[in-house]
Amino acid sequence: MNKRNYYCLVAGLPDLIPDDKKLHFSSVKLRSYLQEELHPADFEVVKMFYLPWDHENLINLLYEKEFDWDERGNYSREDLEQFGDKKQIELIDATVFPSYFMDFVELFYNDHEALPKSAAVKFFAEKWYEALAGSGNQFVAGLGKFKQNMANIMLALNGRKHNIPFEEAIIGDDEVTHALKKSRSRDFGLAGEISDIENIVQIFDMENLLDRELKLDNHTWHYIDENTFFNYFTIEKVLGFVQKVFIVERWFELDKEKGQQIFSQLLEEIQSNFEFPEEFAITYGKR
Predict the structure, then answer these.
(1) Total Cβ atoms within 10 A of residue 205
(2) 3-class secondary-structure state, position 18
(3) What is the tens place of the pLDDT at every residue in 170-213?
(4) Rg of the Cα trace of the chain?
């Protein structure tokens, strides 16, 4: 199957240099820009990467009284508030949302048993990984499996360290999840399934939580690099960039100094690969 090439998009950043104020890309504005630049089918794939914030927004709408709305979600508050009124569910245009949104509503409004928030979180995570696996894009499916394995491994390591039952929280049903639930060896006997499992375990053993999180994000960063290396102008290169922007934004929230360092690293790396207008830059602090 021939893939679409975005020669103009993947052409090199203009002179966009971070100043002394904390500068970073906005994933929200990036999505708006990509909507104008990408083929509709490719943009739908981009939107899949933003779905976790839709899940979070919907869950908060149904379970919390007060919360901050995350603009990174694809859907507006008005869109998702439709799910908050059981009487209006039948009026929702289901074609606007991923099919599992309506499946969730059926579970949530089950009159026989209240659905715990933790079950809702797991439901959306499972469905998201399934959606990535069925996307028809090899990079997207691979990244979904990578993220699922990483989340499960960290969950199992935490559970084992703190003697907390974790088996029911594991997502998926394959050789990796079976090993995580049953094995008591240091690497869960996964050396044959996950080549870098020992490295992941070593990262988990780090005492400084921020350093651990940075190592984990670097691990994801390297995965993206390795799996988009030969995708010079295709949607995979754009998708990898989107994921890296998510990492940069996360570090501005966790650690401002490290966030700036990671942003500079990202900027240097993509200067010769992508071209985005300067309005993606947002300066925090004094304007």
Answers:
(1) 11
(2) coil
(3) 999 999 999 999 999 999 999 999 999 999 999 999 998 888 88
(4) 20
Phi, psi of 106 (to 5 degrees): -60, -40
Residue type, 103: D
Q: Which residues contact 44 (CB under 8 A, 6 or more apart)?
A: none
pTM: 0.86
Dist. CA 51–CA 25, nearest whole Å: 19
Residue with tokens 């942003």: 263
Nearest 10 degrees: Cα torsion 77, 83, 86, 92: 100
**Look-up: residue for tokens 């949302």?**
97
Query: What's the burial of 195, exposed, middle or buried (CB within 10 Å: 0-12/13-18/19+)?
Result: exposed
CA 249 – CA 251 distance, rounded (Å): 5
Taking the CB of residue 39, how many other CB atoms lie within 10 A of it? 11
